[in-house]
Amino acid sequence: MDTFYGIERSTILDFAGLTGVVFYIGSYAGLQTGLLKGNGYAYTIFNLLAAGLVLLSLTNDFNLSSAIIQATWIGISIIGLTRVGYLNAVTRLNAEEAYLIKEKLPGMPKPMARKFFNAGVWLDAEIGTTVASEGSPVGALYFLSDGETSVTIGDEHIGTSKPATFIGEMTCFDAAPATATVTVSKPARFFRIGTESLNMLCRKDSDLKMLLENSLAADTRLKLVEANAQITGKTQAH
Fold this sequence. Notes:
Elements: E1 3-4, E2 7-8, H1 9-33, H2 41-57, H3 64-90, H4 95-104, H5 110-118, E3 121-125, E4 130-132, E5 140-153, E6 156-161, E7 165-167, E8 181-194, H6 195-204, H7 206-237
Antiparallel strand pairs: 1-2, 3-8, 4-8, 5-6, 5-7, 5-8
Helix pairs in contact: 1-2, 2-3, 6-7
């Protein structure tokens, strides 16, 4: 059959090949711009579709070398999908780990999350515990899962950290001095990951680094908005 609904078979196959090329380029562009994760389903599926379409187009003008490359790519993609599916199926997160991921790192694959949590520790803190001291290095990133902290600069109270908040997000990668003092005001539960461990993870996994940087930046913006609103309110009150 040389036509399909009046369209030449060769034209259809050429279109399939071009579509495959678009999938190849699009998936690579998505990877480089951070829209797709190298260890995620989408990137592998796009490559699988791309190889399949290009292989289909070769039935019109067969080339053995190209066919071997596409068939190999399909096989590798299937193996990759199987591996990702298996790792996601066997990796477990407890309730508080799942809460952190849901609130601050949505979209993080469970295997990546498992490595993140294994590099840190969960801590309980009583009232009065100092989490960060203004002018001194924090040396870690904290996630407040439960409880409450008071944030002060000098002697002035500038805010209160509620659950689902990062602490030390502005200095966690370089261990720079804290910009404020953070003290536990209600019994708290934290996840803590040290600067050295955090940087080691990010060096090994650029996708993890990008997820963290985006989440930390969003958290910082939210805190700045809240701080500005509080300052504005005090100014108007006077």
